[in-house]
Amino acid sequence: MKHPVPKVLALALVSAFAHAESAPESSEQVQDMSDPLAVYTQGGFGVSDKGLNLKVGQTYDTGNPDTMAMNIIEVKGIAGEQLGWSGSSKRDDSIDSLRFRNFSVDTTNGRGAQLDMNYNVEKEQLDTSYSFIQALPKWGALQLYPLAGAGARITNGQVDTTVDTESGTYPIDKSIGYTIPGVYGVVGMYSKLAITDKIWVNYNPMWLTAIAGSDDFMESAFGQGNSEVFANEVSLSYQITPRFNVRYFANWTQEQEFKEGDQRIEVNYQF
């Protein structure tokens, strides 16, 4: 079954392409693709346990010589029935999710800001957050990038009600349209450990917790009975050329074992 994309995300996608049309030609300078705060025009694809993922990123002129910015659009879970390997009965050939990010960084102080929008197609649910990221001084081969922000959830809500008939009453689910059931906070970090000049490891933990909203949101915002979630992401990357790399990602939460989380391999190219 295919689900509509909410207007707010559609407008974001249109905005991204509009910026791409007006962006200047890319610089000859190659950006460090291992830096979580690096900004560059890019394209990539990957294969995950849920299907094929596609990604495109476009830099644009902010009008300020001290800042750099880009938009990134990702489509996830394409052709999951044929290409996925998770064994989940929910895998199908419809896409699983869409993600839009607007990212900017001040090159004078290493401070970034990110608008992150994730739309779950199956649940018809949009999580959108805004956060600030700060690059800390390197400590040998290790560098940390703490992050903090807040977000809101938009979902196509359902309510339980009853219908009266001559033979009695029976329960039904009634759509109430898109609503904002609650808001949440997010605290975490990106980290980078350089193994060699071409190999590095990232560990990106994130803690999300419900702040305010409906009773159901406050009790189960991140899964049945979970008002908070601790999410882990680990990646191992190899830089094949200055513009081309291959990366392995694993994502899981405190409710999952490592092998139960999402796994994917992707390749990325810097234009």
Automatic annotation (TrEMBL):
Residues 1-20 form the signal peptide. Keywords: Signal. It comes from the Bacteria. This is Porin. The lineage of its organism: Bacteria, Pseudomonadati, Pseudomonadota, Gammaproteobacteria, Vibrionales.
